[in-house]
Amino acid sequence: MGNPRQNDTPAGEPHLPVVEVDGTAYRCRSARGAPTEIRPMKANLLLIDDSEAQSSQIIESLERLGYSVKRASSGAEGLRLARESTPDLVLLDVVMPDIDGFAVCRWLKVNADTRDIPVIMLTVRTAVADRIAGLNIGADDYLAKPFDDQELEARIFAALRVKAAHSDLRTRNQQLETMLHSVEALAITDSLTGLFNRRRFADVLKREFAVTRRYRNTLSCLLVDIDHFKQINDRFGHDAGDQVLKEVARRIVGSLREVDLAARYGGEEFAILLPHTSKKDAKIVAERLLGNLRKQQFTFGSELVRITASVGCAGNTDVASGQAEDLVKAADLALYEAKNGGRNTVVLYRSPADDAVLATSLPPPTIPFPGSIPAPSAPFIVNMSPPSIRAVPDSSVRPNPADENGDKSNR
């Protein structure tokens, strides 16, 4: 160690008490007849060194320079104190009886609670290989003994400056990530209802449709349109319309599974994706949703208002083109039919494939009688009597060959 600076601490007060206030260490100084002066400490340091004499000299110098120092006499104790007190910096001796400084530094850097603590290794080893070994395992600096107090403070200050810069960078990165997540959420969310917006729906539709084609799954789409919504806005104002939209969105979410996706498609129209759901099962979901909407009542002023909705439903089997957008177009055609059919209902899209299946399932048509032949009023009745069998005369019987030739004995 070099000659310490004697003008930092008055003579007779080599060791001043240290107190901690709100997590910050302070050193108390008092002149004779003067009130106690509290000076903030520069940083909290941990010295890991097995030598009692060298540790006392280093601690005295560091405290004189304005640092608060804790000492560990072994590697194991140093690891424990580093986890418990989380110092700002660790001064680590390389040569120790139980665990050498290289192993201690390695454990400090692999532990999540201590990996960000700067480590300055102190040793009498001056070989380049030892310096490289210390730096390779994660040490921030390497200082050979003996060293000057000013050089030690300069290296401590440099390590703490780098640590502060890293901490500030991490804080800024976290703030940036939080901001990016917020911006991303705003970009895909409808601000009024809290549902996804049309852009997000289009992205998920493309992905789910591709998965459906790849694995031969089923996928259905519902388009929900609130009936006579314009009348609500015109009669009660846009605030009443916003209230209706929020409640409809809430009931839509309550009627779906976690894997389903609901989005505000535009105005009073909502779009719903139902993965692994056939068109027949999607109709059940739509009917349940309409049932929930019919139960809702709104009071605007002194008037009680009930709402209904129309739903168009289509499945991936209705799309022959292989384009995801055509699934929404099919559901939109079904919704248009539901609107024209009186509203407050669910209509399934009928594709040419559905018409072909329906044609094959119908019974064969009956063949009408020609116009010139009147149709019978009763079934035909045919009476058939059994044929009569008459006796065969004797003359028709073929004579015996023996009789034809004549029998001499009988003549």
Q: Any overview of this molecule?
A:
The protein contains 12 helices and 15 strands. The protein has 411 residues and is α/β, with parallel strands linked by helices. Strand 7, helix 4 and strand 8 form a beta-alpha-beta unit. The N and C termini lie far apart (174 Å).
Q: Major β-sheet, in short?
A: 5 strands, parallel
Q: Helical element count?
A: 12
Mean pLDDT: 83
Oligomerization status of the protein chains: single chain
Strand order of the largest sheet: 5-4-6-7-8
The number of domains is 2
Q: Which CATH class of the largest domain applies here?
A: Alpha Beta
Structural class: alpha/beta
**Could you state the CATH homologous superfamily of the largest domain?**
Reverse transcriptase/Diguanylate cyclase domain
Main attributes of the structure:
411 residues; alpha/beta; Rossmann fold; Alpha-Beta Plaits
